[in-house]
Amino acid sequence: MNPLTKPTPDALPRKASGKAPLPDHLRRLVGQVVDAIDTPSLVIDLDAMERNLTRMADFAKKHEIRWRPHAKMHKSPALAKLQIAAGAIGVCVQKTSEAEAMVAGGVQNVYISNEVIAQSKLARVAALAKVLSAQGGQLAIAVDSAEGVSRLAAAMAGSSASIDVFVEIDVGQRRCGVIPGAAAVALAKKINSHSCMRFAGLQAYHGKAQHLRSAQERRAAIAVAVEDVQYTRRLLEEAGIPVELVTGAGTGTLVLEAASGVYSELQAGSFLFMDADYAQNDRDPAAPKFEHALFIKTQVISVQADHAVCDAGHKSHAIDSGMPTVHAPDAEHALEYFNGGDEHGVLRVAPCGGRLPALGQFLWLIPGHCDPTVNLHDFMIGVRGGLARGQVERIIRVEARGALT
Question: Which residue segments constitute the domains of the chain, with CATH numbers given?
Answer without folding.
Answer: 21-45+290-397 (2.40.37.20), 46-273 (3.20.20.10)
